[in-house]
Predict the structure.
Amino acid sequence: MSDDGELKTRIAELISRDGPMPVSLYMMICLHDPRAGYYATRAAFNRDFTTAPETSQVFGELLGVWTGIQWTHMGLPKKLNLIEMGPGRGTMMKDMLRMVRMFPRLSEALDVTLVEASPLLREEQKRTLEGHQIRHVESIDDAPPGPAIILGNEFLDCLPINQFVRASGAWRERQVGLNAKRELVFGLSPRVEPPPGLSSTGDEIEHAPALELLIDKLTRRFSTDPGRALFIDYGPAMGSPTDTLRAYSRGRQVHPLSDPGGSDLTADVDFARLAGLARAAKLHVDGPLAQGSLLTKLGAGIREKVLGDANPARAHDVSAAVATLVSPDQMGERFKAIAISAPSLGPAQGF
Ligand code: SAH
């Protein structure tokens, strides 16, 4: 439920005062407004959509295995920063930390940092990870230096996007404005130049400016310290997304302007652009690879069998949840994994 439209009223007031706003600003306010933003007020976001870690413990466990393999490949550094961006309820980190115990001495080497914007979700993460030493930071820049494994599941899709539309030969930006009844409506700006370097095969462009910032931050970090970042999210494997802004509430897709702050806003991830920016910065890129392929290579089938054998009454549920993660007709194909690494590390295992 939204805050009875209070955020909608505030957004309408902003638009009356300053004029129509870009889609990115609308997204930012809806997701992060301290009083009424979606993530700022909803610790139980999994009512509205179910993420991979909330689907099965196998997801986080296999990423724990992946982390162990990368640590080994990095030469078993005595201290390894494990950094998660947008950890939600903390479930994935909890499952990873259980699994890393398979690697002798890795648990002692780990220093866990969570990059989380929402104070409410920070509290939820502390509860989930009780007994573990964790620190919260605003930005990956504030994580301690040193070798790092960085992970983000369904983090990139909530980074704000701008949308550009070509109509009658001129580019215009999609904006959120008001109609005569003071309802929120989409409209188009006067003629603008879209930011340079964006690929536009058609008449629509979507651009997440935060991807540039993210690559800048990784480039800076990886210029002094070895590290790998793994992002898993939805988006096309080739080409850039267009017109993909969507809103979800209680498992259903709703209109993005209908309930600001009350529904999750998301857009497909531009993997092609992310990879292009990383390569231009001389970072190493693996993928994007289908989530199903990565999890299968990391041993999803074996883990499913071990869990099923340990608890036969639950074996069917475990198998169904793993199938949700890996099947091409469920999350297996639509979700992709991309690894971005310090050039010295070379290809990431599992790709
Ligand atoms: N990774 C979790 C949660 C995904 S929801 C899972 O898979 O279940 C997105 C998460 O990213 C939330 O925790 C949200 O609060 C956080 N988030 C979104 N934008 C952010 C930003 N700019 N900085 C830090 N955290 C952000």
Remarks:
- The chain has one domain: 2-234+244-344.
- The longest helix spans residues 57-73.
